[in-house]
Amino acid sequence: MNETEQIVEEKILTEEEWEKGQEWGGAACDECGHKFEIGELHFLLSGLKSSNVFFAYCVSCYQKRQW
After folding, report:
1. Which pLDDT tens digit goes with each residue over 2-37?
2. What pTM did the predictor assign?
């Protein structure tokens, strides 16, 4: 894996993650701002492999990125 490759993780938002997300306005897509609901599928993409930064995308925005 080189420095620019991203790790993609499929996630289902849990109630615990949803509650944590409320502290900063709710778990949401970093692209369009869509607020995730409990049980909703979304994708986490890592930043550079040397960082611990992840970006969340709703299914629609993630699919657009694949084109």
Report:
1. 445 567 889 999 999 889 888 878 889 999 999 999
2. 0.75
Token output for 63: 């699919």
Q: Terminal CA-to-CA distance of the chain, rounded, Å?
A: 22
Residues 6+ apart with CB under 8 A from 39: 12, 13
Which of 38, 32, 19 shows the shortest CA–CA distance to 59?
32
CA dist., res. 2 & res. 13, Å (int): 29
8-12: strand order across its sheet: 8-12, 41-46, 54-58
